[in-house]
Write the structure tokens for this entry.
Amino acid sequence: MMDFSYMRPASLEAAGAGLASGGTLLGGGTGLLDLARLGIAQPQAVIDLTRLPGLDRIEVTGTEARIGALIKMSRLAAHPAMRAALPAVGQSLLASASPQIRNMATIGGNLLQRTRCAYFRDASFGSCNRRNPGSGCAAIGGVTRGHALLGTSAHCIATHPGDLAVALVALDAVVETWSPDGPRALSIHDFFLAPGATPEKEFALASGDIVTGLRIPLAPAAQRARYVKLRDRASYEFAAASIAAGLSLTDDGRVADIRIALGGVATIPWRARAVEAALRGQRPTPAAIAAAAALAMREAEPQHDNRHKLALVPALIERTLTEMIGDAA
Amino acid sequence: MSPPRPLTLIINGEPRALLVEPRTTLLDALRENLDLTGTKKGCDHGQCGACTVHVDGERVLACLTLAHQVEGARIATIEGLAGPDGTLHAVQKAFLAEDAFQCGYCTPGQIMSAVACIREGHAGSPEEIREFMAGNLCRCGAYPHIVAAVQRAAQALEQEALP
């Protein structure tokens, strides 16, 4: 692994100063140290945030959940009040990575994880616009079984690998950041950037921003949301396709609120707004669900090896919504 | 370059002073600086679990942990698992009883992971053991015996805990 210096700041101000002088933030290390050893990340100065005070709290009030950025994935997944208030969060976390990694990785770092695109992770491929802007995309025309069908561009088709992020997009979470200019809050819907012409720009963060936490509003559809992940093997695998779905019904059985987010098939955690719009205000009959689910991949642009997801995703949506309505009845 | 810096790690209950570069991982510090070679280097990318150790009682991957990051934390490795008189831990005994290995390379990581898995309360059924031991790969494919060993150890530890 390349040489770097190490500092352990005692305050956000000190971390911010390190960041301003070219440092790289370190949380649990499961992303950064892996990529540094591959030569993809090249930190000169590592700023270890893990002992910063005040960013390791979970609070669930009557209206929202607040989660510090330094909370470990395993701790958030096991938190009793979180499990009761927002079960999809814990479900998405327990479907991620391995127990060891969940004990290490922070929630802030999890939000900032990089794609698992094999062409991004292997520096021997010269072409990767995400790694080396303007160099091209080796994935397009390559082996694309795990690549994205939604939110792609001619410059990048790398899939967003997250599970928690998919749940957060369904739950309308808010990301809190700190910079020397002060704290800031931005919607999770603005946080992840589709590649477009600038795949190297992955997050709507300015260079001095440090992610400090999350807020998740407690709405009925969010509180009943669930996370379902399909994988090529039973565990310890990225999603072939995943869904975070939330639903609430009116007294007369119509869809009051619906949230559908998809993982494993898009360049960013993907909100399926067309599916939601087709069901909102409607009675969720089997025919209505099937018709709505079919809209999810209407704008998909499949690659050579991932066409099966055109059918997989609508089937996952249909199955999940049908089960949720069955459980609610 | 960033020169080696002094560091004290608490390994298996003993403070150990060492001098390591900032980029040194806990895994390399254990193996190269402290001659604790029980913790294995498999993939060195956090994928295989061979380097599993406990930091403050929780299982983590030593290959993706910087040594300086765990300054002052309590680190437990496979070398510290047996009693001072050499009595094997219940999980070690169960791995022998169930023949839960072939080549043995993944075994220290499997055992450290299993100790934590049982302590977490995630060893209640074969299905649960398979899910919560998923971070430890065994290229020899000894999985059925590993699951049996974890189950046997969980039952033995439960018996021990009875009044």
